[in-house]
Amino acid sequence: xxxxxxxxxxxxxRRDSYxxxxxxxxAGVLESFITDFYSKDFILGMARxxxxxxxxxxxGRHCDGIMNKNVRSQPGAFLASQIFKGSAQxxxxxxxxYARTLSLAAxxxxxxxxxxxxxxxxxxxxxxxxxxxxxxxxxxxxxxxxYDYEREIYKQYAPTSVVESASSVLKGHPELLKxxxxxxxxxxxxxxxxxxxxxxxxxxxADENICRVIPYGCDFAPLNSFDLPADDCFQAIFVGSGITxxxxxxxxxxxxxxxxxxxxxxxxxxxxxxPEIRKQMGDTPDVVLLPGVxxxxxxxxxxxxxxxxxxSLIEGFGQVYLEALACGCPVLGTANTVLPDLGNESNGxxxxxxxxxxxxxxxxxxxxxxxxxxxxxxxxxxxxLALQFxxxxxxxxxxxxIT
Length: 403
Prior knowledge:
Elements (H helix, E strand, L loop, with lengths): L6 E4 L8 H8 L3 E6 L5 H7 L4 H9 L10 E3 L1 H9 L4 H26 L2 E5 L4 H5 L8 E5 L4 H11 L8 H4 L4 H9 L6 E4 L2 H10 L6 E3 L20 E6 L8 H8 L8 E6 L5 H8 L4 E4 L4 H10 L2 E3 L9 H8 L4 E3 L5 H4 L6 E3 L5 H17 L2 H11 L4 H12 L1
Parallel strand pairs: 1-2, 1-4, 2-3, 4-5, 5-6, 6-7, 8-9, 8-11, 9-10, 11-12, 12-13
Helix pairs in contact: 1-18, 5-9, 11-16, 14-17
């Protein structure tokens, strides 16, 4: 790698645990990381005096592998997003406008520093179209499948659902949607976390030869922190947003028809739930809703559950699958995720067709019977598989791809 070639990276939030800018920093090629809010020394010091959940959130907005001097925060935009949340529609409009601001900030710094760009897909378009006095490399990290492809998936599997996605909300506003759908057209290289995401870009017209798949990694709990599921009650767990895309409505319908000789419980960890799905949950027996848990509690719930299930219609990756596997919990999902990239049933990875609640119910019934009778071997295999997908492996993949 040319160590004189430095990169500007930009995205809000703590996407992918900051591993992309960490990879650049680790390789000595991070010029600057631009984000909305990032916890530096003073804020981290204050966090220890705050309630556990708030402290965990603040500590999560930091990565020890990135030097503070290389991070540029835009706290005003972060505060506005937290205070004025509004409806889903207003969030998408505000998000699209902030994406332009962040992209232009990245372009401005790349111009000043004569740097290359490694930008996340929602925050790349304006920067990639900018005229530079130098020739920057334009690397796109496509974290979500192409939005037009997402819309086609909804048409196929959930045509009557209320879709709260950028592709639907911004459909009548091409000036806001175009940056989300067309950034790949101006990229020299495209990085994706799953083959499914890559396939969505090829469907849209991207050159397969410039697309690289680099699966995410995950943090691993120590082995001595694991509990085991009880054999007398089948427990499944769902972690994610309460929306159609995550398949929660399909899961709840299937759960009503699960056949099992004994008690069963579905634990749903979900902060936001669409109104129609919340009503459906109220009509579904043996469901426990937890609006949010701390990380250690989540690890315990994964390890005490026989199965993690999230039958998503579409996922750029699905980090929770890997988190569950790392805790020894087998997973059930669909092929419209990273699961085909990770392994198969011998590794504790099970799949059903997206949107098919009947087949999901059959599979759940089968797994309820088998996983409560004998689960030690499959849990060992799941943990062993997850251990292969380290964040170090992901970071190395990013750097090897851009060289």
